[in-house]
Amino acid sequence: MGYTAIVDYGAGNLLSVSKALDFLGIRSVITEDQKELSRADAIILPGVGAFPDAMEMLRQKGLSDFLAAEAKKKPFLGICLGMQLLFDFSEEMGMTKGLSLIGGGVREIKTPYKLPQIGWNSLELINPSPLTKGLPENAYVYFVHSFAAEVKNREDLTAVCDYGTKVTALVSKGSAFGCQFHPEKSGDVGLMMLKNFGELSL
């Protein structure tokens, strides 16, 4: 029986993601082992905290180049900070190189509103994606972040939210996907997207 691997690198909200997958009947394992990650049908890269710290932990575990390669072979989902790591760079706490799976960079949100953005916000769909199949218009999802990705190529942008400015919320390129919000904390809408992701590896 296949499984989805949740990357354990010291900067992820692992248990809530695992419980959401369990609820959906999607078998998952939490691991940092490259053999187990390579055998997985799909990979989820969660993340909380600061971009440079997360990249350093991935490098220390020998996972940065490995995950960048795996993301081109199978369904790969970055969540919150995990989504930001998919990009070329981040300006958080200085300039740090990312996994370069999606063109663009991560910068602090330029908004008149208070940062971080914490709470529910609605999605404005820009381009179609397998993750948004069956999603209602203006679906609400849960965010916690101060930095956001600026996508180089508009075709990689799936959805935005409005937080005093348009903020990248959902991206996809090839087999790599990213949610700036937390689908595992976004009720039925988030579960629908995780279910859609799980179906990509069937």
Beta strand %: 25-35%
Radius of gyration equals 15 Å
Shape, per Cα inertia axes: globular
Order of helices and strands: EHEHEHHEHEEEEEEEEEEH
TL;DR of this structure?
By secondary structure, the protein is α/β, with parallel strands linked by helices. It is 25% helix and 33% strand.
Describe it.
The protein is 25% helix and 33% strand. The chain has 6 helices and 14 strands. The strands form 3 sheets. Strands 2-1-3-4-14-13-12-9 form an 8-stranded mixed β-sheet. A 4-stranded mixed β-sheet has the order 6-5-7-11, covered by helices on one side. The termini are close together. 47% of the residues are buried.
Q: What's the SSE blueprint?
A:
Layout: E1 4-7, H1 14-23, E2 28-31, H2 34-39, E3 42-45, H3 51-60, H4 64-70, E4 76-79, H5 81-84, E5 87-90, E6 96-97, E7 102-108, E8 117-122, E9 124-125, E10 140-145, E11 147-151, E12 157-162, E13 166-173, E14 176-179, H6 187-199
Parallel strand pairs: 1-2, 1-3, 3-4, 4-14, 5-7
Antiparallel strand pairs: 5-6, 7-11, 8-10, 9-12, 12-13, 13-14
